[in-house]
Amino acid sequence: MSGDVIVGDRIRGRAELLDRAARLASAMAAAGVGAGDAVALLLRNDFAVLEANLAVRRLDAYGVPINWHWHPTEIGYVLRDATPRLLIGHADLLDGLGAHIPEGLRVIAVGGSGEQPDYDDWIAAHEPHEGHGNGLGSSMVYTSGTTGKPKAVRRLPATGEESAQRARVLAVIHDTAPGNVALVTGPLYHLFSQAILMATFAAGGTVVVMERFDPEDCLRLIEQHHVTHGALVPTLFVRLLRLPEEVKGRYDLSTLRHVVHSGAPCAPEVKRAMLNWWGPVLYETYGSTETGVVTKISPREWLARPGSVGRPVLTGEVRIRGEDGQWTEAGRTGDVYLRIHGTPDFTFHGDPEKRAAVEYDGLITCGDMGWLDEEGYLFLCDRRADMVLSGGVNIYPAEVEAALLEHPAVSDCAVFGVPDSEYGEVLVAYLQSDEALIPDEVTAFLRGRIAGYKIPRHLVVGASLPREETGKILKRRLRESFLAGEARETGAY
């Protein structure tokens, strides 16, 4: 089983996957894909994701993973902006695009029988590619467009040492080793999930890929395949914790050793509950599409410093830049700047000015704010874009959200600012709850935990909150709904 990849009830061995990837590289080359070219990937969790990523690296090309949950117009924007030589996608996803596929773009369908060439037939018609690439290929990833169009983070061509350093960082982050059995729980168009797939396969481990996440199925797969490693976003922890106690106790999870979580903040009480259930196996990481993962914290370290996302690994560096534009000392809040030195650099595709704007003194900001303690552990406050200025005072919604999540009837929440004629901005809180919440009781609950000026002026209760697959709440959608007056129909206070 070592080195296999398992998707549902299908298994492909390492030798077969490498052979298919080499044949796919030949097919791509015959279609005109060369060094520096882009190949768009509109793929669900399947073997094709791994094969395509291995193939583009042989050609020093770029894989462009596309979030297939996006609207066809958003996908069409990516296909025009990235100017790929080739689009590989699952047939049903391609069928929904229609005229959004640029004219002249060659399309290969996985599992289809329509007008496009079939992926498996296309691979079988070519001999394995003999080259292995020069380490120049990588990825071009479009991050979710929270303020307009998605932006593309494109890795620059890497030297051999930069590629080796990137591999060393991934090995540390995911604790990779030949005997590992890793479970992929999230969509492979996201680098968080893709990283553990690629790193585990490269190290000779076995990878079990969930086609879609189901909490009990996750437990079943851990027991069935003796899973040792994994990667989850915090929203999946919440879904797991909601399982009935008899279901939780039904499965043997004793093989778990190292489970990474990242992608969104994790409420402290959620993490403690998971640690009490799964044991000391949860390792939190922090970084971004631009920087890659930079910090990591072990269960033991986190219990001593709850709320921290860790210290830099290997050649990583984290510094805090204050409002005066200078680096601050420990304990002061400011913009987080970070980097893993010696790994491949990046640019924003078609926007070098934006790339220059996020760098200072050799480090990169992702828009987060936070502070460092005396030992160099990083604590995050919030996104700068989410910070609210109310009555001349800075308020970090993440702090208010953490207080709300301590309420036993609040299962999820989102806090953001909206314009106000008197204070400039005031806070709105969307609460997910299965119970009827009384506004005065929620306010009284908060008064015992945060300052009065941080208490939301408006509360909205709903059955669920919109989230990306990575677990991030779509606050823009909630803000637009509130400002349009739609929220009052769902119980605004």
Automatic annotation (TrEMBL):
Domain called AMP-dependent synthetase/ligase: residue spans: 15-339
InterPro entries registered for this protein in UniProt: AMP-bd_C, AMP-bd_C_sf, AMP-binding_CS, AMP-dep_synth/lig_dom, ANL_N_sf
Stored Gene3D superfamilies: 3.30.300.30, N-terminal domain of ligase-like (3.40.50.12780)
Domain of life per record: Bacteria
Domain AMP-binding enzyme C-terminal: 399-472
PROSITE patterns hit by this protein: AMP_BINDING
Name under which the protein is recorded: Acyl-CoA synthetase
